[in-house]
Amino acid sequence: MSAPSDHPTVPSDDPMFIIGWREWVGLPELGVAHVKAKIDTGARSSSIHAFDVETYVEDDVERVRFSIHPVQNRDDIFVNADVPILERRHVRSSNGEVSERIVIRTPLAILQRQVLVDLTLANRDAMGFRMLVGREAIRRRFLVDPAASFLAGRRPHRKKKKS
Q1: At a CB cut-off of 8 Å and minimum separation 6, what does 57 contact?
Q2: How far apart are alpha carbons 49 and 110 in whole angstroms?
């Protein structure tokens, strides 16, 4: 008979990884090395703070250009992205308001794994996190330990230049 585990096991073809309620994640195809994300099992979809959002059609494919502030309270740091639009979806926000959002599909890097996720583009400027990872992105891939943070590691800090 085996000893009880600290964490329950879930049957799956792939191993389940444990993550905290907030993690540093990457969006490699968007050029974002690190963004602090809230892992929110109460939210169905994932969302990223986007601004200067512009849609256009190229070769019969609807695309979107937008910018991301990956670091909270640092509007001087931004990343530009240009990707195909997956769809438009009606999303209910935490305050109950329903709005139509653009959805893109992109790899999410966390714990040395990359998984494809659908991301809605939203104005999260007033929110505590630039990114929200919802339950559809983590379903059957990760288990969330609500008492833990940054189990994937802390964001590497840049060394300050000495004057």
Answers
A1: 63
A2: 18
Phi/psi zone of residue 13: left (φ > 0), alpha (ψ -120 to 50 degrees), beta?
A: alpha
Q: What is the pLDDT of residue 156?
A: 58
Structural domains in the chain, CATH included, are 23-48+86-145 (2.40.70.10)
User: Distance between CA atoms of 85 and 136, rounded to whole angstroms?
Assistant: 18
Strands (E), the chain: 17-20, 22-27, 32-40, 46-49, 51-58, 61-68, 79-84, 87-92, 98-110, 113-122, 131-134, 142-145
CA distances 138 to 35, 44, 67, Å, are: 17, 10, 25
Interval 29-40 mean pLDDT? 94
pLDDT level of residue 147 (50, 70, 90 thresholds): very high
pTM of the model: 0.81
The overall longest dimension of the chain from CA atoms, in Å, is 62
- Token output for 18: 């444990």
Q: How far apart are CA 106 and CA 83, in angstroms?
A: 9
